[in-house]
Amino acid sequence: MKNQMNHEQHPKQLYSLPDPYPTPRVMGKNPYYASILLEDYAGISGELTAIHQYIYHYLTLEDCHTKIATLAHQIAIVEMHHLALLGKTIRLLGKYPVMHSNDHGLTRFWNADFVYYGDTVYDKLSANMKHEMDAIQNYRRHQHLIDDPFIQELLERIILDEEHHLQLFKTCRDEFCTTFYD
């Protein structure tokens, strides 16, 4: 069949760093830490939002901007791996990885309003850069809130990929967007 992709063999080395991911481990069950990680999992700047946003951008750009579409698609696959790592960690902490986060004590279920759809290539790439910057900021904040070296190590490894994604999106925007209206 045409265009079938084996996700186990995608060119991951271009879209994630070669450093190994730590195996999800925790010092012990901690529902509070799990609640913090749910923001990274399914919050507005979380992995689930990134996956949906990047896949949407892939689908809307694949006919006219193949290189940008491929970038969005491949980064979405890396974000799926991050989602799985976070989900496993949330389970180890004693909670289910339900698609929600806590917003000032209130449960906020994930919804498609979190996704920035965008109109132009510039808009989409800029939104993806902002998403990566916000995710990095959240991961850093959560590293300080979570006193578990195993989780801190996992978050640091994910941050490395997010910083790489930010640079990839920036390079792509600089290469393809000569004006704000591209």
UniProtKB/TrEMBL annotation:
Q: InterPro entries this protein is in?
A: Ferritin-like, Ferritin-like_SF, Mn_catalase
Q: List the cofactors.
A: Mn(2+)
Instruction: Identify one Pfam family in the record.
Output: Mn_catalase
Question: Which superkingdom heads the taxonomic lineage of this protein's source?
Answer: Bacteria
Note how many cofactor molecules are bound and how.
Answer: Binds 2 manganese ions per subunit.
Region annotated Disordered sits at: 1-21
Provide the GO MF annotations for this entry: metal ion binding
SUPFAM superfamilies this protein is in?
A: Ferritin-like
Keyword match Thylakoid: no
Q: Which UniProt keywords apply?
A: Manganese, Metal-binding
Per UniProt, Mn(2+) binds at E47, E79, H82
What are the Basic and acidic residues biased-composition ranges?
1-11
Gene3D superfamilies xrefs = 1.20.1260.10
**What's the family?**
Belongs to the manganese catalase family.
Name of this chain's protein: Manganese containing catalase
Source organism of the structure = Pelosinus fermentans B4
